[in-house]
Specification:
Number of strands: 4
Strand content: 25-35%
Number of helices: 1
Helix content: 10-25%
Strand order of the largest sheet: 1-4-3-2
Largest sheet: 4 strands, mixed
CATH topology of one domain: 2,3-Dihydroxybiphenyl 1,2-Dioxygenase, domain 1
Shape: globular
CATH superfamily of one domain: 2,3-Dihydroxybiphenyl 1,2-Dioxygenase, domain 1
Length: 83
C-alpha cells in the first residue's frame, strides 16, 4: 500500500516560507539584485516577494511576484556555470 507523505515545509531554498508562496523555478543570473531591480522597473507591476538573501555556501536568491500571482525566483549559484 502506498501512503502519501506531505513534503517537508522546512527544506529547500526558502525553508521558512509557505510552500504555496515559494518559487518553483529559479532563473540563474549573474547578479540577483540587478535581476530583481530590472523585474521591478520593467513596468509590469511586479512586486518584491522575497528579499535578496544568502541562503548558504555563497548561493544568493530573491523572488518577485507578478500581478498574475506567479512567483519568479532568481538565483546566483557560484557552483554552477551559466550558459
Amino acid at each position: 500500500m502506498l501512503a502519501l507523505v506531505p513534503a517537508a515545509t522546512n527544506s529547500g531554498l526558502s525553508p521558512d516560507s509557505d510552500p504555496d508562496e515559494a518559487a518553483l523555478t529559479y532563473w540563474g543570473v549573474d547578479d540577483v539584485t540587478i535581476a530583481v531591480d530590472d523585474a521591478l522597473s520593467a513596468g509590469a507591476g511586479a512586486s518584491e516577494h522575497g528579499p535578496v538573501s544568502d541562503v548558504g555556501d555563497g548561493v544568493i536568491t530573491a523572488c518577485v511576484k507578478a500581478p498574475s500571482g506567479s512567483i519568479v525566483g532568481f538565483i546566483r549559484n557560484p557552483h554552477f556555470t551559466l550558459t
